[in-house]
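User: quick one, fold this
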Amino acid sequence: MKTYAMMVLGCKVNDYEATYVREKLNRSYQEVDFKEKADIYIIFTCCVTNTAESKTRKFLHDARRNNPDAYIVAVGCMSQIKGDSSDFDDADLLIGSDQKDKMIDLILNETKGSRVHEKISTEFEELFVESYPKKSRAFLKIQDGCNQFCSYCIIPYARGRQRCARHEDVLKQAEILARTNKEIVLTGIHTGRYDDGEYDLHHLLKDLVQIEDLHTIRISSIEMNEVTDEIIGLMKENNKIAHHLHVPVQALNDTILSKMNRPYTLEEYIERISFIHEQIPGISIGTDLIVGFPYETDEIFEEYLDALKKIRFAFVHVFPYARKKGTVADTFDHQIDNHKKKERVRQIIDLQQKLTKEHKKTFIGKTVKVLIERNDEDCSYGYSREYIYTKVPGIYPVGEIINVTIESAENEVIAYVAE
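Assistant:
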């Protein structure tokens, strides 16, 4: 039997699309580790950061070195943006951000030559995934593309304009996924903008919670102004929706937010996050934060630290700003040197580690539901619906949801099965 190896870089959408390809290829090929010699190598590329692009180039070279005669496929955002560059000299087939549904036939026939399409379709491409057999939770792609055009971001150019799956298809797929995965994560490039012309995200969630086999629904990421009162109300009344939101802020100063083309002020953001906390006590809210963006003075950075203390996120993903050719921000003056960016990232991480520990301690004595993801010799590990990573003494089946009472929250959160 022929073999294939796959490397997936970037976001949950890439993960979902790679799962679709894997599901189809496993009927004809055996998957091996990427480091091994394979007949076919598939790299799902990413261009959101320069590091991701560097990794893409590395894995393309690694694949050719592992097997000079291999058939190599590059898929996704970097293929779309830089498909005509020398970065892809090692690739036999390029698939950008469209027509991935044709990829399987192209791979099976080992078709060679560029297949990047400059014009990305405005229609949602249905890639139906039936199961996530090796993962405790399943991703479900409901949306693609982005219309926001934040000044630092290349993704609208790489993924195209926003488009959504039909709600009938989402519900059908969720019913099938729920047979093997008790938790589903709704994902997309701009998930909160879901709207198929009949259903918005709130209406979709209302129908999803009716699926009997589905125990937990999680939203991968959602903008502040898309967490509507209706969604908050549904989260309050139905415990199937995880009390966890990832709400990117990106900057903590109005000048920088405006330069980024973010559609809110810091005060509006703080007011909305405070309202969500008031409505859903105990909810975990995380965020993304870019540090070292042009025009970020020392005084503005101090405002970042003060705002973090005020908002008190459960967790923060912090990134140093990296210039990206093709974006508006790449043309800005007042670029900040890398040493200063690195130091500011360190200060954010140090502060947030303390805030995250304090957040976890608020759960001591509480009973939460945990989805078991892995085991070692004598313990089980998984995330609660509030996205608290928990260690549970004893061996429990991966993929099962158990009730536990949190006992301590120092370096790790330790909980015991509830009586």
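User: anything notable?
Assistant: The mean pLDDT is 94.
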